[in-house]
Fold:
Amino acid sequence: MTGHHSCRNRAFTLVEIMIVVAIIGVIAALAVYGVSRYLRSAKVAEAKQSVGQIARGAVGAYERERSPSELMAEGGQSVAVSNALCESATPIPATVPKGTKYQPSSAAGQGFQTGDSETGWKCLMFEISQPIYFRYSYTKNGATAAPNNPGACTADCFEAGANGDLNGDGALSSFAMTGQINAQTGALLTATQIYSTSEDE
Structure:
């Protein structure tokens, strides 16, 4: 009577096990890369969305007609209404977070609750109450967030900006949207897109 071997009792060879382990390793590496890239993209989206919102606030504030409160003499005329950019805001937070989140203060006169109808965050009607990865700024007639921007603001303009250090290595990422007043028409024109450098830093 001859012996009979069942295929069900066959064991995996060392080569087969190594191939399976290698495949699992490659899949795991791709998954880690994909997740980390997704997380970085989500963090960068925070900056781009907020910078866009600050810029829209600057345009909205400029388009509001302003006139001073005045007591007019009988038969006199009031001062003509005007359009003006918001004055610069205090950057929030004071320093760029290094790979961490910052929780803005919601107290009156603190954080994004600073300024008035003509100055800062209140003029822009912009605020963030959730933790943030970036330092946000708004500058009238200057470029503080992205001075190397080809469309940097110098005069009769604004810069809405964000700076971050997502990996905490001291190298900063920069995001900026600028706007410029047309001297002939008085219209406020904004850049076609957000300028950014070193987004993953």
Summary: DSSP finds two helices and five strands in the chain.
